[in-house]
Predict the structure of TIGR04348 family glycosyltransferase.
Amino acid sequence: MLIRLITPPGTQQIGGGNHATAERWAELLRSLGYEIVIADRYGDEAADLMIALHAWKSAEAIQRYRMRHPKAPLIVALTGTDIYRYQHSDPEVTNHSMQLADVLIGLHERVTGDIDPAFSGKVEVVLQSAVAPGHAETSKSDGFEICQIAHLREEKDPFRAPLAARGLPEASRVRIAHAGKAYFDDWARRAKEEETQNPRYSWLGNLEREDIWALMARSSALVISSVSEGGANVVSEACVAGLPILASRIPGNIGLLGEDYAGYFPVGDSVALQVLMQRLEDDANFWNQLRGHCRTRAALLTPAAERASLQRAIERCLKPG
């Protein structure tokens, strides 16, 4: 079976989450015997099935495929911006893609509560997997380093962690190491200003994957402060790495870490995040509690589990009627 895996235009050039997801899914699906072609547009080429990442950004490819193949199976994977931005700012285009799909993939367990109920019955949850590299474990840094792995854009609320760290007691050893690309000069300028003014903050820029894993290995925790997420792969990576996570209380994080996780803080609340940082540094029992929870969740985030979920989505798509 030939599957065309469509990513948003430009994804293959700029990288990022959608590109990483597409490459990982292609590898998993090839291991199941499927022939996979990744592209950022569709020009009426032959296909037995299409999987399109992003309902809004891939809308043109989705519509063209459906016109060319009215009865062929179609899967649309919903991203965070689909669910939490474009579903509201451009519902006609986003909902049309969802309507055309036979199956919708959600990347966290609470997706059905955040989309139009008319489409919730189409959802198949596929939790993104991660595999820690098999190199020797890196020693922890001398301080209490908290890594933040997020590109500099509005949805990520990228300066929440350094703002929270500013209010920590002078004796605190917390340092924020931020890895992520600034797509615009204004974001880069602000990161450099924060680095100059805040001794607890370092902006590392865009790192290669092996350097990201090395950063996590030497860190004591990870912070994800996003305003919205469709199911961030960095959460999966941190769980697999055995890192405690301090996470904004949003559906995308709750849908990966569970409702009962103790490491949440309200979106945009620097004081609450500061309290969690200090508690994590000072209270070994709390650190172990969060770490244990994340390690437990890691059992759901394996390549085998993700591959089985993708296969379920495909089988559901192929069922007659």
